[in-house]
Amino acid sequence: MTASADHLKALLSAHAARDDDRFYGVAMQVAAKSARQGHGKLAAELRELIDAARAQKIPRLAPTPVVQPRGELANLLTAGYPETRLGDMTLAPEVHTLLDKVLHEQRQRGRLERFGFTPVHRLLLSGPPGTGKSMTAAALAKELGLPLFTIRLDGLISRFMGETASKLRTIFEAAAETRAVYLFDEFDALGADRAAGNDVGEARRILNSFLLFLDQAPPESLVVAATNHRQLLDRALFRRFDLAILYGAPSTQQAIEVLRRRLSEMDTSAVRWLELGVCTEKLSHAELVKAAESAAKRAILGGDDVIDQQHLTDALDERHALRHA
Ligand SMILES: Nc1ncnc2c1ncn2[C@@H]1O[C@H](COP(=O)(O)OP(=O)(O)OP(=O)(O)O)[C@@H](O)[C@H]1O
Ligand SMILES: [Mg+2]
């Protein structure tokens, strides 16, 4: 055995600290020791392996700094450090399962990479407004301890027109350097190019630029594209994502859960939840949250924290009325 126990310990601790220089330095010491012990062939092989590994050393993405986009980038995206947790969301069980899988693969990506596999890192979220697509991107960022960078594609396209592809490239270059969750909101704007007044050539440039980015996106970052017009998107585009997740209106049980959670700080002992089922129909998660907030504010301004059944029903009816306004 050429490597001593001390060498092994030093190798492990260098690896754990992601300190490549120290790692290869110790490996070179092992090679030198082998040579001294007369194992010339082994020493030569070790040196060769070290040189080859150093030559193809892939720069690891910087550990997430507290980043704020500066200069041109500040105009193209917004940065945030969300506090939303996945557990705060009410989701269909199958959506929950998929998101847990994303988190699990991201957290264990080292193990996957050692065998040549990459974690799921390109997600397409689609579904009606207010069902939690943007919130999911925020929750994933929080769960992984990453910043959330949001890029509103519709805004980008209408603001920069012919320069959109080059602006996207600026974003992608930054993305290659910073581990984060990148949320491309209003993603269907990529498919609705003509409406934005761009010529077809420009639309293709934007799309190609995006596809290139998707192909090259580093697996340490998450790219999340969100849309509520999935049908506008080219099918070829879907295949470039690792996972497509469908969001939908909440079931009655989920709707009640959204209300209960939003009212968890209030006294709801008088609320007959099951009777609310009908009033929650067709309302999105976002609308239910607003109704709950409205009922809570009414209670607070009325002098206490007791939620009244009638007030909650009224608030839900109001959301229905707004829907049809
Ligand atoms: N699944 C959910 N669980 C709990 N609250 C939710 C959920 N979905 C939405 N909400 C509430 O609604 C608000 C808006 O949701 P969000 O912005 O995530 O919707 P969206 O699906 O991105 O809609 P849009 O298509 O309009 O962008 C959230 O901030 C949250 O208060
Ligand atoms: Mg959204």
Protein model, in words:
With 325 residues, this protein is of the alpha/beta class. The chain folds into three domains: 5-55, no CATH class; 72-246, Rossmann fold, CATH 3.40.50.300; 252-324, Helicase, Ruva Protein, domain 3, CATH 1.10.8. It contains 15 helices and six strands. The chain has helices at residues 5-16, 20-36, 40-55, 72-76, 93-107, 109-114, 133-144, 153-160, 164-177, 200-216, 235-238, 252-262, 277-280, 285-301, 309-324; strands spanning 78-80, 122-126, 148-152, 181-185, 222-227, 243-246. A six-stranded mixed β-sheet has the order 1-3-4-5-2-6. Helix 10 (200-216) links the parallel strand 4 and strand 5 (222-227). It binds adenosine-5'-triphosphate and magnesium ion. Magnesium ion binds at residues 133-134, 185, 226.
What's the helical proportion of residues? 40-55%
Please give the order of strands in the largest beta sheet.
Answer: 1-3-4-5-2-6
Q: Could you say what the CATH topology of the largest domain is called?
A: Rossmann fold
Strand content: 5-15%
The ligands found in this model are: adenosine-5'-triphosphate, magnesium ion
The secondary structure category is alpha/beta
Q: Give the number of domains.
A: 3
CATH superfamily grouping of the largest domain: P-loop containing nucleotide triphosphate hydrolases
The 3D shape can be described as: elongated
Write the element-wise H/E pattern from the N-terminal end onward: HHHHEHHEHEHHEHEHEHHHH
Uncertain spans: none
Mean pLDDT, to the nearest integer, reads 86
Shape-level CATH architecture of the largest domain: 3-Layer(aba) Sandwich
CATH class value of the largest domain: Alpha Beta
Q: Tell me which oligomeric state these chains represent.
A: single chain
Q: What does the radius of gyration come to?
A: 26 Å
